[in-house]
Specification:
By secondary structure, the chain is an all-alpha fold. The protein has one domain. It has three helices and no strands. 0% of the residues are buried.
Length: 65
């Protein structure tokens, strides 16, 4: 299954990836408007989640051979 997804991802252009990022941004804004309690999450929790979610992609991009 992952091999098939990797084949499909290779078809994406920089514009496609950029549009996907904007879609996530707007979806996040919608979620925050629906659930304003999300804004009450402490910044340190968000920073920890950010680091945890970004470690593998950063490692794969910069250090994996």
């Amino acid at each position: 299954m992952l091999k098939e997804l990797n084949k499909r991802i290779k078809k994406l252009t920089v514009i496609d990836i950029g549009l996907t990022k904007w879609s996530v941004l707007f979806a996040t804004i919608i979620l925050v408007k629906i659930f304003p309690q999300i804004l009450r999450i402490h910044y340190s929790v968000l920073i920890i989640l950010l680091v945890l979610c970004s470690v593998k992609p950063i490692y794969d991009f910069w250090f994996k051979k």
